[in-house]
Amino acid sequence: MSTTARILARRSLRKAKGQFAITGLLIAITAMMLHVAVILTGYRESISETTERLDTEDTSILLSSAEGAKRAAHVLDSDRRVADYEIVPLAAATASFRYAGADTQNPFTMLTSRESKPRIGRTGTVEELGTRLSDPIWLPYVMKTGGGYDLGDRFTVTIGGVAHSFHIQGFFESPMRDSLNVGAMEFQFTPASLKTLTASPGVRQAWHARVQQTAAARSDANSSVLTSRIRTATMGAGQPDPVAYSLSWTSYASAQTLTPNMFTALLGAFSLLIAAVVALIVRFAIRSTVVRDMPAFGTLEAAGMTAGQVMRAVMAPFAAVALCAGALGALASSLALPFLRRMIESQTGLVWDPGLSVPGSAAAVASMFAIVLLTAWLSSARVRKIPPVDALRGGEAAHSFRPTRLPLASTRGPAPVLIGLKAGLRARAQNVMVTVVFAIAVFAAVFALAIDSAILGNPRQFMDTLMGDRGNVSITAAPDQSVYALRADLGRTPGVGSSIVYDTTSAESDAGTITLIVSDDAPRASGKTVYEGRLPARAGEIAIGGPLASALGIGVGDDITISHTGNKATYLVTGLTQSTMSLGKSAVLTVDGVRQATPSYQPKTLAVYADGADAKTLFTRISSSFAGRYTSMVDMQAHVDSILNTYISMSQGLAVGILSLTGIVAILVVGLVVASLIARSRRDFGVLKALGFTNRQLSVQVIAAQLPSMCLGTAAGVALGWAFAMPALGQLLRSTGIMRLDAGLAAGPVVCLGAAFLALPVLLSLLLMRRARRITSRDLLAE
User: Model's pTM, two decimal places?
Assistant: First the structure.
């Protein structure tokens, strides 16, 4: 670049510092979001690295009998898809404990010795006290990040109605055995404590098959095949179903990457929106520069400078700002990483130590540089079309045949308003930018409102959509108890309104392992989860999860074959459901429907509904009155609240973040436009002040120049948000198993939001116009 071009570029930077500062800030925000999105895409690889380091199994199968463990060894020895395996004897229980301030339960809690050294599926210590406590327990890391516990805290676990208290010695990470919602959870004890626990009520002997498959065979379907073969081999010998649960690494990883994937999609979408805003601002800024410096360009071209050199001089400041701001934004991503780390670790329980990604930083900076450079080149191309003579005249043609809009002589209305409207009509490019930016910002804000309406507006209804109505208390009958006799006795208990069978079991399908929800009152238990068709009413019918239907390519009216306890049965699909259980790979059957595959099936769990008593009181009353008749009992209201709190905290963070970001973008854009208008109109303001216009009238004029485009953009954003915000949120949530949101946007909040987006820039304009109040008309005319 020549010396003259460099001087011109520096002059542009000096004369429009605020303009470049706003552009740079938006570029930095966009680059930061893009970089964070790139970092989040690597989270699944981080899980893979952890599982490789700890030799985690590809298939995890919890077996309830010694015969099942013996048959499993024969099956795994003979299967060519198995690279290695280990069957670990351990104690298992349905454990209840406090998590995130609420009671919760895990039905597949593994109780192991801290001193055990398995070959496959090792645990990795994250934190540990240096001094051994008298009653130590080691917990999964998620109990710290999501459960709110810390080293040395008291931890009470209730098994078989008996409470056992310990103090937390340390935390460990253990893929496949560290989640409340996916598979099992492992607690570690000293050998002495474990021996005492094993003799306690509710603790049972179990065997954990940890299977590593060959690289070519590693899949969810093959995990399901292995589980089915173990079931068939055991039950073929006249033994009961030995499989308590089965989990593949693919399913586990899909569940653990759910939150990162959602945030990646949101960050990517909003990065594109803000990048579009940046492009509009660059276009507006360059057009303003060309108009302002037209005489200087004419002089330079008359002196021998080519139009291409002038274009490069105009583009150079924006290219420099894009590079510097993009790099700063990518580096600033490190400020967001601690928040992201806490959020992800609280969901997954795996240590994640993200660092700045060099390829990600380069991609973010290069993307913003390319967007700015292309926009600048297209916008500055106007310089080539202006002859030097016209440029010397400031771009004014010898004659102008444009009609005079809103002529002051014949148009009725306050002069400041009319002058402002006339100025706005002349600035077509500016109007387009403000309209599009406001439409984007308001649409994003309405999307945040959709999150609030769908999740925060009626949390209980949202949870009913996710999980169905699980009652106030869930009780699982002891092995020697009949669930129907237990229900009859519960019906005579004060505070109990009614109870229904609500059992869960697993089965195999062509899409892998699925969760079966079994009930004798499916409409009450799962009625709100149906989004197409109906729930099963007889033995040969089934309702399946939407993701399962998509995986199998079937719908309502088709047949599906599933295998339960090694026995196959075919059912007619009568409905599609939505549920986060197994990420939507689930199905609803009647009790007789399960017996069509397994005639000897007996349900063991009831959902109990309170009548005139709160859930906590009812829980206490049942636990004392029915001691010895149940293996586990859960305060479902507290359990659902603990899950709901996770969704609420995540949704609140998303809504606040989106609203804050859109508000900042709107303020920056309006600030840029108004500041540019004030700078360009200082002499005009001086003339108007000399003619008797007050500071208030000048402020009205500035607002009138911007208000029509802001109103149009706000109306467009509200209309687009009303039509597409809730469907967009629904599409985002489909990966969790939620196929249809039965929520809508109320007109009142949407209109209020639009009004707030209009009020904010008006207040900002009044604030910026205070600068002009301090200067007299003489000072303005003398510049």
Answer: 0.77
